[in-house]
């Protein structure tokens, strides 16, 4: 835990330092923008989890971007838990999002690298699925909000002038989950991320 916190602190310090070099201490020479649908894969304990996401923001000097991002669990129907309130089955729903910063090295090369960082919050909930008279209903059993920090490293490929693809790994750090019979660090995990960015780079 201590090593993770130190690593996150170093990433934050580096991101803010690079942001200052690009945008705060001198006027940006170029301002662009982007919007990006994203797809992620991760694991909660022994369960496969798929995430759908969307991010967007402003790009300063081709290298530093500042915006918002969010992700949601898209396969909740497969995340079944039968040991929390037996014999009922509960299903895990949730998502998170927040401020997203990214610094991109060698942006004009066909292949390059970037370092995204998301800081924000989210929520998780266990829901019951009830089918009453052919009417599908969801009933929340328990829910909780959480703080999250997610640094990462991505390989980018410039496909055409207004589109690039990023593939890489992030680490989601959310140590304060408070749900029944659930680990407080359930969300602490690596994520494989694929995204397509569209915009003026």
Characterization of this structure:
- The chain has one helix at 2-24, and strands spanning 31-44, 47-60, 64-73, 80-81, 90-105, 111-132, 135-160, 163-172, 189-200.
- It has 201 residues and is mostly beta strands.
- It has a single domain, classed as Beta Barrel (Porin).
- Strands 1-2-3-5-6-7-8-9 form an eight-stranded antiparallel beta barrel.
Mean pLDDT: 87
Instruction: Give the neighbour order of strands across the main sheet.
Output: 1-2-3-5-6-7-8-9
CATH architecture: Beta Barrel
Roughly how many Å apart are the termini?
36 Å
CATH topology: Porin
Radius of gyration: 19 Å
Fraction in helix: 10-25%
Which structural class best describes the helix and strand composition?
mainly beta
Q: Which stretches of 5+ consecutive residues score pLDDT under 50?
A: 2-7, 15-25
Write a concise keyword list for the protein shown above:
about 65% strand, elongated, Porin, about 10% helix, about 200 residues, eight-stranded antiparallel barrel, mainly beta, 9 strands, 1 helix, disordered N terminus
